Predict the structure.
Amino acid sequence: MENPIENLDPVYKNKSYGQYREMLYSYDENGNFQQTVCYHGEPEKVVLEQAWDLFNERAEDAKQKVLAGKVSPIAYYMEKILADPLGLSMMAGVSLWKVKLHCRPFFFKRLGEKTLAKYAEAFNISVEQLKNPE
Amino acid sequence: MDSKSIMINYTHRQAGHCESGATSNLYNFYGYQMSEPMAFGIGTGIYFSYLPFIKLMFAPMMSFRNLPNTVFHRSSKYLGVDATVIKKFSNVKDSMDALDRNLEKGIPTGVQVGVFNLTFFPPEYRQHYNMHNMVVYGKKGNLYHISDTVMEHPQTLTYDDLVRVRWAKGAFAPKGKMYWINKMPKELDIKKGVELGIKKSVYEMTKVPFWLVGIKGMRVMGKDIKKWPKKHGNQKASFYLGQILRMAEDFGTGGAGFRYIYGAFLKESGQKFENAVLLDAADLMGRTANKWREFTYIGARNCKNRSSQPEEDYNTLGDMMLEIAGMEEQVFKKIEKLKI
Protein backbone atom coordinates (compact mmCIF):
# COMPACT_ATOMS: atom_id res chain seq x y z
CA MET A 1 0.00 0.00 0.00
CA GLU A 2 1.17 3.52 -0.77
CA ASN A 3 1.79 6.17 1.81
CA PRO A 4 -1.30 7.76 3.33
CA ILE A 5 -2.67 10.89 1.72
CA GLU A 6 -2.71 13.91 3.97
CA ASN A 7 -5.79 16.06 4.04
CA LEU A 8 -5.18 19.27 5.95
CA ASP A 9 -8.61 20.88 5.54
CA PRO A 10 -10.51 20.93 8.81
CA VAL A 11 -14.19 20.31 8.28
CA TYR A 12 -15.30 21.89 11.53
CA LYS A 13 -13.26 24.52 13.27
CA ASN A 14 -15.32 24.83 16.43
CA LYS A 15 -13.94 23.76 19.77
CA SER A 16 -15.53 20.42 20.43
CA TYR A 17 -15.25 18.78 17.02
CA GLY A 18 -12.58 18.48 14.42
CA GLN A 19 -9.54 19.07 16.60
CA TYR A 20 -7.93 15.72 15.87
CA ARG A 21 -7.09 13.99 12.64
CA GLU A 22 -7.51 10.27 12.23
CA MET A 23 -6.61 7.73 9.58
CA LEU A 24 -9.45 6.51 7.41
CA TYR A 25 -9.47 3.90 4.68
CA SER A 26 -11.40 4.04 1.46
CA TYR A 27 -11.93 1.93 -1.66
CA ASP A 28 -12.09 3.47 -5.14
CA GLU A 29 -13.45 2.22 -8.48
CA ASN A 30 -10.03 1.03 -9.65
CA GLY A 31 -9.89 -1.50 -6.83
CA ASN A 32 -7.34 0.26 -4.67
CA PHE A 33 -7.51 0.70 -0.93
CA GLN A 34 -6.37 4.15 0.14
CA GLN A 35 -5.33 5.51 3.50
CA THR A 36 -6.21 9.12 4.23
CA VAL A 37 -5.31 11.16 7.28
CA CYS A 38 -8.18 13.61 7.71
CA TYR A 39 -10.65 15.28 10.04
CA HIS A 40 -14.11 13.91 10.84
CA GLY A 41 -16.86 14.06 8.30
CA GLU A 42 -20.45 15.21 8.63
CA PRO A 43 -22.14 11.91 9.71
CA GLU A 44 -19.70 11.45 12.60
CA LYS A 45 -20.40 14.94 13.85
CA VAL A 46 -24.14 14.37 13.69
CA VAL A 47 -24.12 11.12 15.68
CA LEU A 48 -21.63 12.44 18.24
CA GLU A 49 -23.66 15.58 18.81
CA GLN A 50 -26.77 13.50 19.21
CA ALA A 51 -25.13 11.29 21.82
CA TRP A 52 -23.60 14.14 23.81
CA ASP A 53 -26.82 16.13 23.77
CA LEU A 54 -28.58 13.14 25.30
CA PHE A 55 -25.88 12.65 27.97
CA ASN A 56 -25.96 16.34 28.92
CA GLU A 57 -29.74 16.33 28.97
CA ARG A 58 -29.80 13.38 31.33
CA ALA A 59 -27.27 15.02 33.65
CA GLU A 60 -29.24 18.29 33.67
CA ASP A 61 -32.42 16.34 34.40
CA ALA A 62 -30.79 14.57 37.34
CA LYS A 63 -29.46 17.91 38.65
CA GLN A 64 -32.94 19.39 38.76
CA LYS A 65 -34.17 16.31 40.62
CA VAL A 66 -31.36 16.63 43.18
CA LEU A 67 -32.24 20.30 43.76
CA ALA A 68 -35.86 19.30 44.23
CA GLY A 69 -34.77 16.67 46.75
CA LYS A 70 -36.14 13.74 44.80
CA VAL A 71 -32.88 11.85 44.22
CA SER A 72 -29.49 11.83 45.93
CA PRO A 73 -26.30 13.41 44.49
CA ILE A 74 -25.13 9.92 43.56
CA ALA A 75 -27.75 9.79 40.79
CA TYR A 76 -26.49 13.12 39.42
CA TYR A 77 -22.81 12.17 39.43
CA MET A 78 -23.68 8.81 37.93
CA GLU A 79 -25.24 10.55 34.92
CA LYS A 80 -22.28 12.90 34.78
CA ILE A 81 -19.78 10.06 34.29
CA LEU A 82 -22.14 8.48 31.73
CA ALA A 83 -22.78 5.37 33.80
CA ASP A 84 -25.90 3.37 34.56
CA PRO A 85 -26.47 1.70 37.96
CA LEU A 86 -24.83 -1.52 36.76
CA GLY A 87 -21.76 0.31 35.48
CA LEU A 88 -21.49 2.34 38.66
CA SER A 89 -21.76 -0.78 40.80
CA MET A 90 -18.80 -2.23 38.87
CA MET A 91 -16.80 0.97 39.16
CA ALA A 92 -17.42 1.62 42.84
CA GLY A 93 -17.50 -1.98 44.01
CA VAL A 94 -20.96 -1.67 45.59
CA SER A 95 -23.64 -4.19 44.69
CA LEU A 96 -26.35 -3.20 42.24
CA TRP A 97 -29.34 -3.17 44.61
CA LYS A 98 -27.41 -1.01 47.05
CA VAL A 99 -26.54 1.49 44.30
CA LYS A 100 -30.22 1.73 43.45
CA LEU A 101 -31.09 2.35 47.11
CA HIS A 102 -28.34 4.95 47.53
CA CYS A 103 -29.85 6.97 44.69
CA ARG A 104 -32.63 7.92 47.11
CA PRO A 105 -31.97 10.78 49.57
CA PHE A 106 -33.31 8.78 52.52
CA PHE A 107 -30.62 6.10 52.22
CA PHE A 108 -27.91 8.48 51.06
CA LYS A 109 -28.08 10.45 54.34
CA ARG A 110 -27.37 7.26 56.28
CA LEU A 111 -24.25 6.29 54.33
CA GLY A 112 -20.99 5.74 56.21
CA GLU A 113 -17.68 7.38 55.36
CA LYS A 114 -16.32 4.16 53.91
CA THR A 115 -19.03 3.77 51.29
CA LEU A 116 -18.95 7.48 50.48
CA ALA A 117 -15.21 7.21 49.84
CA LYS A 118 -15.85 4.33 47.46
CA TYR A 119 -18.29 6.42 45.45
CA ALA A 120 -16.07 9.49 45.56
CA GLU A 121 -13.19 7.49 44.10
CA ALA A 122 -15.36 6.18 41.29
CA PHE A 123 -16.53 9.72 40.48
CA ASN A 124 -12.98 11.10 40.82
CA ILE A 125 -14.07 13.81 43.30
CA SER A 126 -13.71 14.43 47.04
CA VAL A 127 -16.25 13.25 49.62
CA GLU A 128 -17.13 16.88 50.41
CA GLN A 129 -18.06 17.50 46.80
CA LEU A 130 -20.18 14.37 46.77
CA LYS A 131 -22.13 15.54 49.83
CA ASN A 132 -22.62 19.09 48.56
CA PRO A 133 -22.86 19.12 44.75
CA GLU A 134 -22.52 22.53 43.07
CA MET B 1 10.81 6.85 41.99
CA ASP B 2 14.09 7.17 40.16
CA SER B 3 14.51 10.02 37.73
CA LYS B 4 16.44 7.93 35.23
CA SER B 5 15.30 8.68 31.72
CA ILE B 6 14.70 5.83 29.29
CA MET B 7 13.82 6.37 25.66
CA ILE B 8 13.51 3.38 23.32
CA ASN B 9 14.08 4.12 19.65
CA TYR B 10 10.52 3.26 18.65
CA THR B 11 8.85 4.56 15.50
CA HIS B 12 5.34 5.88 15.88
CA ARG B 13 3.15 5.45 12.82
CA GLN B 14 -0.48 6.40 12.75
CA ALA B 15 -2.95 3.61 12.01
CA GLY B 16 -6.66 3.09 11.66
CA HIS B 17 -7.16 0.64 14.50
CA CYS B 18 -5.48 0.84 17.89
CA GLU B 19 -4.51 -2.78 18.45
CA SER B 20 -3.48 -3.87 14.96
CA GLY B 21 -1.56 -0.60 14.66
CA ALA B 22 0.27 -1.34 17.90
CA THR B 23 0.96 -4.92 16.75
CA SER B 24 2.34 -3.86 13.38
CA ASN B 25 4.49 -1.15 15.02
CA LEU B 26 5.90 -3.71 17.46
CA TYR B 27 6.74 -6.07 14.58
CA ASN B 28 8.42 -3.20 12.78
CA PHE B 29 10.46 -2.42 15.86
CA TYR B 30 11.87 -5.95 15.80
CA GLY B 31 12.86 -5.55 12.17
CA TYR B 32 10.03 -7.20 10.33
CA GLN B 33 8.05 -5.03 7.90
CA MET B 34 4.39 -5.65 8.52
CA SER B 35 1.58 -3.37 7.44
CA GLU B 36 -1.43 -2.69 9.62
CA PRO B 37 -4.00 -4.60 7.50
CA MET B 38 -1.72 -7.66 7.50
CA ALA B 39 -1.54 -7.70 11.29
CA PHE B 40 -5.30 -7.17 11.49
CA GLY B 41 -6.07 -10.04 9.11
CA ILE B 42 -3.69 -12.59 10.58
CA GLY B 43 -4.86 -11.67 14.07
CA THR B 44 -8.51 -12.20 13.00
CA GLY B 45 -9.64 -8.74 14.06
CA ILE B 46 -12.86 -8.86 12.05
CA TYR B 47 -15.96 -9.83 13.97
CA PHE B 48 -19.55 -8.96 14.52
CA SER B 49 -21.81 -9.40 17.49
CA TYR B 50 -25.09 -7.80 18.44
CA LEU B 51 -26.21 -8.01 22.04
CA PRO B 52 -29.46 -6.06 22.45
CA PHE B 53 -29.99 -7.15 26.05
CA ILE B 54 -26.78 -5.46 27.19
CA LYS B 55 -27.00 -1.68 27.20
CA LEU B 56 -23.78 0.19 26.54
CA MET B 57 -24.15 3.96 26.92
CA PHE B 58 -27.95 3.55 27.09
CA ALA B 59 -28.25 1.75 23.72
CA PRO B 60 -27.94 -1.89 22.55
CA MET B 61 -24.39 -3.13 22.45
CA MET B 62 -22.78 -4.24 19.22
CA SER B 63 -19.20 -4.95 18.39
CA PHE B 64 -17.38 -4.89 15.06
CA ARG B 65 -14.09 -6.18 16.43
CA ASN B 66 -12.81 -9.13 18.33
CA LEU B 67 -12.18 -9.19 22.07
CA PRO B 68 -9.28 -7.05 23.24
CA ASN B 69 -5.83 -8.53 22.75
CA THR B 70 -6.99 -11.08 20.18
CA VAL B 71 -5.09 -9.44 17.33
CA PHE B 72 -1.76 -9.43 19.12
CA HIS B 73 -2.16 -12.85 20.71
CA ARG B 74 -3.38 -14.70 17.61
CA SER B 75 -0.96 -13.07 15.19
CA SER B 76 1.99 -13.99 17.39
CA LYS B 77 0.64 -17.51 17.83
CA TYR B 78 0.01 -18.09 14.11
CA LEU B 79 3.38 -16.66 13.07
CA GLY B 80 5.34 -18.50 15.75
CA VAL B 81 6.58 -15.39 17.54
CA ASP B 82 7.71 -15.68 21.14
CA ALA B 83 5.46 -13.19 22.93
CA THR B 84 4.23 -12.75 26.48
CA VAL B 85 0.79 -11.63 27.57
CA ILE B 86 0.10 -10.95 31.25
CA LYS B 87 -3.65 -11.00 31.58
CA LYS B 88 -4.04 -9.36 34.94
CA PHE B 89 -2.14 -8.16 37.96
CA SER B 90 -3.23 -8.45 41.54
CA ASN B 91 -2.37 -4.89 42.49
CA VAL B 92 -1.39 -1.52 41.04
CA LYS B 93 2.22 -1.46 42.22
CA ASP B 94 3.07 -4.84 40.67
CA SER B 95 1.72 -3.76 37.30
CA MET B 96 3.70 -0.51 37.22
CA ASP B 97 6.89 -2.20 38.44
CA ALA B 98 6.61 -4.82 35.71
CA LEU B 99 6.24 -2.03 33.15
CA ASP B 100 9.30 -0.19 34.53
CA ARG B 101 11.39 -3.38 34.43
CA ASN B 102 10.44 -3.92 30.81
CA LEU B 103 11.36 -0.37 29.86
CA GLU B 104 14.73 -0.75 31.57
CA LYS B 105 15.38 -3.83 29.48
CA GLY B 106 14.50 -1.84 26.37
CA ILE B 107 11.28 -3.64 25.50
CA PRO B 108 8.41 -1.47 24.20
CA THR B 109 5.34 -2.76 26.00
CA GLY B 110 1.71 -2.72 24.96
CA VAL B 111 -0.95 -2.01 27.58
CA GLN B 112 -4.72 -2.22 27.53
CA VAL B 113 -6.44 0.89 28.83
CA GLY B 114 -9.85 2.49 29.24
CA VAL B 115 -10.41 5.72 27.34
CA PHE B 116 -12.69 7.56 29.77
CA ASN B 117 -9.84 9.17 31.71
CA LEU B 118 -7.26 9.22 28.93
CA THR B 119 -6.11 12.84 29.02
CA PHE B 120 -4.79 13.17 25.47
CA PHE B 121 -7.81 11.54 23.83
CA PRO B 122 -10.33 13.74 21.93
CA PRO B 123 -12.92 14.80 24.55
CA GLU B 124 -15.89 13.95 22.36
CA TYR B 125 -14.80 10.31 22.24
CA ARG B 126 -14.17 9.85 25.96
CA GLN B 127 -16.81 7.28 26.82
CA HIS B 128 -16.65 4.08 28.80
CA TYR B 129 -14.69 1.90 26.43
CA ASN B 130 -12.09 -0.32 28.05
CA MET B 131 -10.61 -2.03 25.01
CA HIS B 132 -8.13 0.57 23.85
CA ASN B 133 -4.50 -0.36 23.28
CA MET B 134 -1.31 1.66 23.28
CA VAL B 135 2.42 1.11 23.54
CA VAL B 136 4.64 2.55 26.28
CA TYR B 137 8.17 3.10 25.00
CA GLY B 138 9.89 5.54 27.31
CA LYS B 139 10.02 7.11 30.72
CA LYS B 140 11.42 10.30 32.13
CA GLY B 141 10.90 10.88 35.84
CA ASN B 142 7.17 10.90 36.31
CA LEU B 143 6.30 11.03 32.63
CA TYR B 144 5.70 8.04 30.38
CA HIS B 145 6.08 8.25 26.63
CA ILE B 146 3.11 6.72 24.86
CA SER B 147 2.59 5.74 21.26
CA ASP B 148 -1.16 5.63 20.67
CA THR B 149 -1.63 4.63 17.05
CA VAL B 150 -4.97 6.37 16.50
CA MET B 151 -3.36 9.70 17.44
CA GLU B 152 -1.22 11.56 14.96
CA HIS B 153 1.78 12.14 17.23
CA PRO B 154 3.37 10.38 20.23
CA GLN B 155 1.99 11.48 23.59
CA THR B 156 2.97 11.58 27.25
CA LEU B 157 1.12 10.57 30.41
CA THR B 158 1.96 11.05 34.10
CA TYR B 159 2.32 8.10 36.46
CA ASP B 160 -1.03 8.73 38.15
CA ASP B 161 -2.87 9.12 34.87
CA LEU B 162 -1.37 5.92 33.53
CA VAL B 163 -2.42 4.02 36.67
CA ARG B 164 -5.93 5.45 36.35
CA VAL B 165 -6.39 4.30 32.76
CA ARG B 166 -4.68 0.94 33.22
CA TRP B 167 -6.95 0.19 36.16
CA ALA B 168 -10.16 1.55 34.64
CA LYS B 169 -13.22 -0.14 36.12
CA GLY B 170 -16.37 -1.43 34.49
CA ALA B 171 -17.12 -3.97 31.77
CA PHE B 172 -13.99 -5.55 30.20
CA ALA B 173 -11.79 -3.96 32.88
CA PRO B 174 -8.14 -4.10 31.74
CA LYS B 175 -6.73 -4.90 35.22
CA GLY B 176 -3.28 -3.78 34.11
CA LYS B 177 -3.05 -6.18 31.16
CA MET B 178 0.21 -5.85 29.23
CA TYR B 179 1.98 -7.63 26.39
CA TRP B 180 5.28 -7.59 24.59
CA ILE B 181 7.43 -9.53 22.13
CA ASN B 182 10.39 -11.47 23.51
CA LYS B 183 12.03 -12.79 20.39
CA MET B 184 11.35 -12.95 16.67
CA PRO B 185 12.15 -16.09 14.66
CA LYS B 186 14.55 -15.63 11.74
CA GLU B 187 11.89 -16.14 9.10
CA LEU B 188 8.20 -15.48 9.54
CA ASP B 189 5.93 -17.94 7.79
CA ILE B 190 3.40 -15.39 6.48
CA LYS B 191 1.69 -17.94 4.23
CA LYS B 192 0.75 -20.21 7.11
CA GLY B 193 -0.33 -17.23 9.19
CA VAL B 194 -2.64 -15.93 6.47
CA GLU B 195 -4.17 -19.37 5.99
CA LEU B 196 -4.80 -19.91 9.68
CA GLY B 197 -6.08 -16.37 10.17
CA ILE B 198 -8.59 -16.64 7.33
CA LYS B 199 -9.76 -20.04 8.53
CA LYS B 200 -10.46 -18.67 12.02
CA SER B 201 -12.18 -15.55 10.66
CA VAL B 202 -14.44 -17.65 8.43
CA TYR B 203 -15.41 -19.75 11.43
CA GLU B 204 -16.13 -16.74 13.60
CA MET B 205 -18.15 -14.87 11.01
CA THR B 206 -20.26 -17.68 9.57
CA LYS B 207 -20.14 -20.83 11.64
CA VAL B 208 -20.40 -19.96 15.33
CA PRO B 209 -23.52 -21.77 16.57
CA PHE B 210 -25.05 -18.70 18.21
CA TRP B 211 -27.61 -16.48 16.54
CA LEU B 212 -26.19 -13.12 17.57
CA VAL B 213 -22.62 -13.59 16.34
CA GLY B 214 -21.29 -13.05 12.83
CA ILE B 215 -23.50 -12.82 9.74
CA LYS B 216 -26.48 -14.20 11.67
CA GLY B 217 -26.15 -11.36 14.16
CA MET B 218 -26.18 -8.83 11.34
CA ARG B 219 -29.40 -10.33 10.02
CA VAL B 220 -31.01 -10.16 13.48
CA MET B 221 -29.94 -6.52 13.78
CA GLY B 222 -31.33 -5.72 10.33
CA LYS B 223 -34.69 -7.13 11.35
CA ASP B 224 -34.58 -5.28 14.66
CA ILE B 225 -33.92 -1.92 12.99
CA LYS B 226 -37.28 -2.18 11.25
CA LYS B 227 -39.06 -2.68 14.58
CA TRP B 228 -37.37 0.16 16.49
CA PRO B 229 -39.59 3.16 15.58
CA LYS B 230 -42.76 1.29 16.51
CA LYS B 231 -41.33 -0.24 19.66
CA HIS B 232 -39.41 2.71 21.11
CA GLY B 233 -40.62 5.84 19.30
CA ASN B 234 -38.70 8.03 16.89
CA GLN B 235 -36.29 9.64 19.33
CA LYS B 236 -35.03 6.41 20.84
CA ALA B 237 -34.90 4.70 17.46
CA SER B 238 -32.67 7.44 16.07
CA PHE B 239 -30.43 7.21 19.14
CA TYR B 240 -30.14 3.43 18.74
CA LEU B 241 -29.30 3.93 15.06
CA GLY B 242 -26.71 6.51 16.12
CA GLN B 243 -25.10 3.84 18.31
CA ILE B 244 -24.55 1.59 15.28
CA LEU B 245 -23.02 4.47 13.35
CA ARG B 246 -20.85 5.53 16.27
CA MET B 247 -19.56 2.00 16.73
CA ALA B 248 -18.89 1.60 13.00
CA GLU B 249 -17.25 4.97 12.33
CA ASP B 250 -15.73 5.71 15.71
CA PHE B 251 -12.20 6.81 16.40
CA GLY B 252 -9.92 3.90 15.61
CA THR B 253 -11.95 1.80 13.20
CA GLY B 254 -10.42 2.91 9.92
CA GLY B 255 -13.96 3.52 8.73
CA ALA B 256 -16.92 1.24 8.10
CA GLY B 257 -16.36 -0.98 11.12
CA PHE B 258 -12.93 -2.36 10.11
CA ARG B 259 -14.27 -3.70 6.80
CA TYR B 260 -11.85 -1.56 4.78
CA ILE B 261 -8.87 -2.82 6.76
CA TYR B 262 -9.91 -6.43 6.20
CA GLY B 263 -10.35 -5.78 2.48
CA ALA B 264 -6.88 -4.25 2.34
CA PHE B 265 -5.53 -7.38 4.04
CA LEU B 266 -7.19 -9.67 1.48
CA LYS B 267 -5.81 -7.56 -1.34
CA GLU B 268 -2.29 -7.41 0.06
CA SER B 269 -2.09 -11.15 0.66
CA GLY B 270 -3.66 -11.81 -2.75
CA GLN B 271 -0.93 -9.78 -4.42
CA LYS B 272 1.76 -11.41 -2.33
CA PHE B 273 0.79 -14.98 -3.19
CA GLU B 274 -0.74 -14.17 -6.59
CA ASN B 275 -4.04 -15.73 -5.68
CA ALA B 276 -7.04 -14.80 -7.85
CA VAL B 277 -9.62 -15.94 -5.26
CA LEU B 278 -8.23 -13.59 -2.64
CA LEU B 279 -8.16 -10.65 -5.04
CA ASP B 280 -11.75 -11.37 -6.01
CA ALA B 281 -12.80 -11.51 -2.35
CA ALA B 282 -10.89 -8.26 -1.68
CA ASP B 283 -12.87 -6.48 -4.38
CA LEU B 284 -16.15 -7.69 -2.92
CA MET B 285 -15.06 -6.72 0.59
CA GLY B 286 -14.18 -3.23 -0.64
CA ARG B 287 -17.63 -2.85 -2.19
CA THR B 288 -19.24 -4.13 1.03
CA ALA B 289 -17.30 -1.53 2.98
CA ASN B 290 -18.51 1.18 0.61
CA LYS B 291 -22.02 -0.05 1.27
CA TRP B 292 -21.40 0.31 5.01
CA ARG B 293 -20.30 3.89 4.46
CA GLU B 294 -23.43 4.55 2.41
CA PHE B 295 -25.47 3.12 5.29
CA THR B 296 -23.74 5.61 7.61
CA TYR B 297 -24.51 8.56 5.36
CA ILE B 298 -28.16 7.62 5.01
CA GLY B 299 -28.56 6.72 8.68
CA ALA B 300 -27.01 10.01 9.82
CA ARG B 301 -29.88 11.88 8.18
CA ASN B 302 -32.29 10.16 10.55
CA CYS B 303 -30.08 11.03 13.49
CA LYS B 304 -30.01 14.67 12.49
CA ASN B 305 -33.67 15.41 12.96
CA ARG B 306 -34.05 13.01 15.91
CA SER B 307 -37.59 13.08 17.24
CA SER B 308 -39.47 14.42 14.22
CA GLN B 309 -40.65 12.21 11.37
CA PRO B 310 -37.63 10.24 10.04
CA GLU B 311 -36.30 11.32 6.68
CA GLU B 312 -35.44 7.79 5.65
CA ASP B 313 -37.67 4.87 6.30
CA TYR B 314 -36.34 2.43 8.87
CA ASN B 315 -37.51 -0.38 6.62
CA THR B 316 -35.07 0.78 3.92
CA LEU B 317 -32.25 0.85 6.44
CA GLY B 318 -33.12 -2.62 7.70
CA ASP B 319 -33.19 -3.98 4.16
CA MET B 320 -29.84 -2.34 3.51
CA MET B 321 -28.38 -4.08 6.56
CA LEU B 322 -29.70 -7.42 5.30
CA GLU B 323 -28.11 -6.73 1.92
CA ILE B 324 -24.77 -5.95 3.58
CA ALA B 325 -25.04 -9.20 5.53
CA GLY B 326 -25.61 -11.10 2.28
CA MET B 327 -22.59 -9.47 0.65
CA GLU B 328 -20.34 -10.27 3.59
CA GLU B 329 -21.53 -13.84 3.60
CA GLN B 330 -20.47 -14.14 -0.04
CA VAL B 331 -16.98 -12.88 0.83
CA PHE B 332 -16.52 -15.51 3.50
CA LYS B 333 -18.04 -18.23 1.30
CA LYS B 334 -15.40 -17.36 -1.30
CA ILE B 335 -12.42 -17.71 1.01
CA GLU B 336 -13.85 -20.62 2.97
CA LYS B 337 -12.02 -23.44 1.19
CA LEU B 338 -9.00 -21.42 0.27
CA LYS B 339 -5.71 -23.08 -0.68
CA ILE B 340 -2.79 -20.73 -1.12
User: Anything to note?
Assistant: Strands of chain A lie at 5-6, 22-27, 33-38. The interface with chain B takes residues 1, 4, 16-17, 19-27, 31, 33, 35, 37, 42-44, 46-48, 50-52, 54, 58, 81-84, 87, 90-93, 122, 124 of chain A (CB under 8 Å).
